[in-house]
Amino acid sequence: MSGLKLSQLFVYPIAGVQVVPVKKNASVPYIPPEIIRIILDLLRGDKKTLAACALVNHTFNLYATPILYHTVAFTFPHTFTLFVNATNDIKRRCSKMVRHLDLSSFSTCGLQKSSIETQNIVTPELLIHILRSFPELKAFS
């Protein structure tokens, strides 16, 4: 790896670590996919960083995306409605990665929604449709 340390390849600007300048003609060091997977798995709890990593290149995207979609949680009716109304193509690609669907924090607090209005948003039919949309789902809460 001639001069670059592995710790220098993954820089967190928020932590105040300096970015290592790379010459334009310098080749990108090879990192085995197994190492990338291990590093990204350590970021499981940091969705924002994982989303940024998914944009790095094809290999990072390949390993970061399933981690990002492993657990999908909805906390407000608005996000739930956005998901329900997403195009079928997006749902088809992402739904195979979801292992845990979490609606336990679903709340209408601050939205002036009554329980009757909430029942109109999350109907039993809609829940059944969503659950059928996740062929690899292992947990639902």
Automatic annotation (TrEMBL):
Top-level taxon = Eukaryota
Q: What protein name applies here? A: 22765_t:CDS:1
- What is the originating organism of this protein? Cetraspora pellucida
